């Protein structure tokens, strides 16, 4: 019954490292999203993709990039991790207002 | 631009009390969708309800009820006879028709603690 899977539940990385967060969905959805969740700020949209090789910036794209080489996989990349990117990251796959979320990746940058 | 505000950051109640979580939204679209999600300690968001802007009927599902009022741009969520298992973070979200309903804007969330 798994629909959206994020590769890691917890990650600890060092400042300056390149970090990849992977998200895979098995519903053949075109639309995939990366959100960042911080206390009191809710979920903020980082990047989204409406199709393979397409990407659009969300509200807080600075310091992030994404890759969508295959329909089912949407990767979030931190080019050079910084401590202010310590957060919970949630991937979502959405079609016709119905959203499915991954279990989240809690990233700590030290 | 669309915006969702959940003014209550934390609410603490004792089991069996009723509790209402507030949600106020802003949008220029006439067609939009409103949502509530629950995030238990496990972290995964659980879908609770979706409402479109043309349906202002209140909805009840067991102990949960939702009050949608376009006149005040509010979509409030009430839990009746709260239980410890209701402890979670609750998010209200909005999606506009112009995005084909495929992009969600979230409020800041309300952490609900139900004490035994």
Describe the structure.
The complex is a heterodimer of chains A (110) and B (116). Chain A has no helices and twelve strands. The radius of gyration of chain A is 13 Å and the shape is globular. Chain A is mainly beta and 110 residues long. Helices cover 0% and strands 53% of the residues of chain B. Chain B is built from no helices and twelve strands. Chain B has strands spanning 3-5, 10-14, 19-21, 24-26, 32-39, 46-52, 59-61, 64-69, 74-79, 88-96, 105-106, 110-115. In chain B, strands 2, 5, 6, 10, 11 and 12 form a six-stranded mixed β-sheet that branches. Chain B is globular and about 45 Å long. Chains A and B meet through β5, β6, β10 and β11 of A and β10 and β11 of B.
List keywords for this structure.
heterodimer, A: 110 residues, mainly beta, seven-stranded mixed sheet, three-stranded antiparallel sheet, 12 strands, 56% strand, globular, B: 116 residues, six-stranded mixed sheet, four-stranded antiparallel sheet, 0% helix
Give a summary of the structure in a few sentences:
Chain A has 110 residues and is mainly beta. Chain A is 0% helix and 56% strand. At the A-B interface, strand 5, strand 6, strand 10 and strand 11 of A face strand 10 and strand 11 of B.
In whole angstroms, how far apart are the ends of chain B? Answer: 41 Å
Helix content of chain A: under 10%
Q: So what's the overall shape of chain A? A: globular
β-sheet strand percentage of chain A: over 45%
Shape descriptor of chain B reads: globular
* Mean pLDDT, all residues of chain A: 93
Assign a percent range to the helix content of chain B: under 10%
Poorly predicted regions of chain B are: none
Summarize the main sheet of chain B: 6 strands, mixed
Secondary-structure-based class of chain A equals: mainly beta
What is the makeup of the main sheet of chain A? 7 strands, mixed
Radius of gyration of chain B: 14 Å
Q: Distance N terminus to C terminus of chain A?
A: 35 Å
- Can you write the helix and strand succession of chain A as a string? EEEEEEEEEEEE
Quaternary state of this entry equals heterodimer
Helix run count of chain A: 0
Biggest interface between protein chains, with counts per chain?
A-B, 27 and 24 residues
The pLDDT mean of chain B sits at 92
Cα-atom radius of gyration of chain A: 13 Å
């Amino acid at each position: 019954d798994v629909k959206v899977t994020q590769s890691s539940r917890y990650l600890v990385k060092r400042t300056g490292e390149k970090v990849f967060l992977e998200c895979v969905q098995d519903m053949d959805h075109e639309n995939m999203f990366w959100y960042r969740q911080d206390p009191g700020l809710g979920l903020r949209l980082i990047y989204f993709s409406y199709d393979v090789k397409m990407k659009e910036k969300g509200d807080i794209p600075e310091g992030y990039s994404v890759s969508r080489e295959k329909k089912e996989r949407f990767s979030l990349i931190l080019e050079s991790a910084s401590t202010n990117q310590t957060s919970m990251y949630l991937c979502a796959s959405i079609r016709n207002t119905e959203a499915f979320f991954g279990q989240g990746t809690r990233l700590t940058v030290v | 631009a669309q915006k969702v505000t959940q003014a209550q950051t934390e609410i603490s109640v004792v089991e069996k009390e009723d509790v209402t979580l507030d949600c106020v939204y802003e949008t220029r679209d006439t067609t939009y969708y409103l949502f509530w999600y629950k995030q238990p300690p496990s972290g995964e968001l659980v879908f609770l309800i979706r409402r479109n802007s043309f349906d202002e009927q209140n909805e009840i599902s067991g102990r949960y009820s939702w009050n949608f009022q376009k006149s005040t741009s509010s979509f409030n969520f009430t839990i009746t006879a709260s239980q410890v298992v209701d402890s979670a973070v609750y998010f209200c979200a909005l999606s506009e028709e112009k995005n084909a309903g495929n992009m969600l804007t979230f409020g800041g969330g309300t952490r609900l603690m139900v004490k035994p």
